[in-house]
Amino acid sequence: MTIVLIDDDISDIEYCKKSLSTNFDCFDTPQCFTDPLKGLEYLNEHKPDLLIVDVEMPNLTGLELMKYLKSPNTEVIFSTAHDKFAIEAYRNFALGFLLKPYSQAEFIAVITKALQRLASGKKKNINSKLLLDMLALENKKIAIPTLGCTYFANVSDIIRLESVEGYAKIYLQDGNIHLSSYGIKFFENSLTSPLFFRAHKSHLVNIQKIKKFFPDGTLILETGERIPVARRRRTSLLELFNSQGLGSNVA
Fold this sequence. Notes:
Elements: E1 3-6, H1 10-23, E2 31-33, H2 36-46, E3 50-54, H3 62-68, E4 75-80, H4 84-92, E5 96-99, H5 104-120, H6 128-136, E6 141-145, E7 150-154, E8 158-164, E9 167-172, E10 177-180, H7 184-188, E11 196-200, E12 203-206, E13 210-214, E14 218-221, E15 226-228, H8 234-243
Parallel strand pairs: 1-2, 1-3, 3-4, 4-5
Antiparallel strand pairs: 6-7, 8-9, 8-12, 9-10, 11-12, 13-14, 14-15
Helix pairs in contact: 3-6
């Protein structure tokens, strides 16, 4: 079975090679690249069974590389040092991921699942643009103007927004709530799909914070809050769920 490793850090490549040789005997000698452009050229020519690729690399990131990959049957595993928000994005897209620094047990589990997918012939379609759009929001901050001052919050920390008499109430992950002097429409221009969804004229929610969606149009958030979804918006929400692999959240 053929495998390619792409990482600009040679020590990470060596650790991955050692982990492979120690725990698996089904792979040919890994083809390794610290230059993602050379790695991409090799991938498109040889079309290996498995690719383990770093996310953050100069010249071409691992996610950008996916846009140019012409090997649809190659199973892809991302190796990344991203935090929980990014990891949730990878998980929701049903992709393999290794969070650096990873243990041998984590490595074995991820590679084993990849081998099982290869053996079953079940290859997932990777919507790289959608994934890139989600991850682009990870470190983005948004200004929240209030009557007293302007707060700055990480977009990924926003749970939901609620329209209250023309103002916007912003609920954050840490429990803080800010009442902005601007309305919810002002924030909707920045808090866009695929991470946020306008469930109702009075509610804008972070898709990653949804726990359940019931047929009667009720969203249950991780906080336990119940948010109504307008009837005409329910189909769009289900389509967004399906595009992100979140179908299991539908009750």
